[in-house]
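lol ok so funny story. i was supposed to be doing the assay writeup but got distracted and ended up predicting the structure for this chain instead. priorities right. anyway since i did it might as well share w the group, maybe its usefull for someone
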Amino acid sequence: MKNAVTKIRDNLPKLMLAFATITKHELLVGVPADSTARDAGSMNNATLAYIHDNGAPEANIPARPFMRPGIKKVERDITLQFKTAASKAMQGEDAVLRYMHRAGLIAQNSIRNTINEGIPPPLAESTLRGRARRNMKGSKAELASRAAGNAPSIDTTTPLVVTGGLRNSITYVVREKK
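and the output, tada:
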């Protein structure tokens, strides 16, 4: 009896290449230390992000977590991009990397939005006074609100946003694993 199987197309090499692409690449989201220099001699944005995300009690800086919460908010969307990348593996390396980049953009934007929404606790009065001296948006209104007996709030001033440099330094990279 003769076998009736006919080989139409061998996609195994392409499939192996695509899965190798997924496993040899990684998606990193955060603030790269090597490209975030601020003024000469000052801390870079990666250091500031770590301090603000985790807090520094010795410097009276409360933790205002934004990295993990920002990613957690879009975890399903990120997972969907990776699932789609795997399902598009047969289309080649470019298709896989395209969905990894989409996952990176989703994470980056969510972290930035988390900062924009404001992260408790409200700013200290001394910080507000410093911002008011520089005529920063909302600081005088918040000081006036507190002077009127209202509870501290993040409605008029956004913690972690002074110039936007820290928020804007949050990015992603898809690279080959080291």
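The chain is about 50% helix and 5% strand. The chain has two domains: 13-35+43-120+160-176, 122-158.
back to the writeup now i swear
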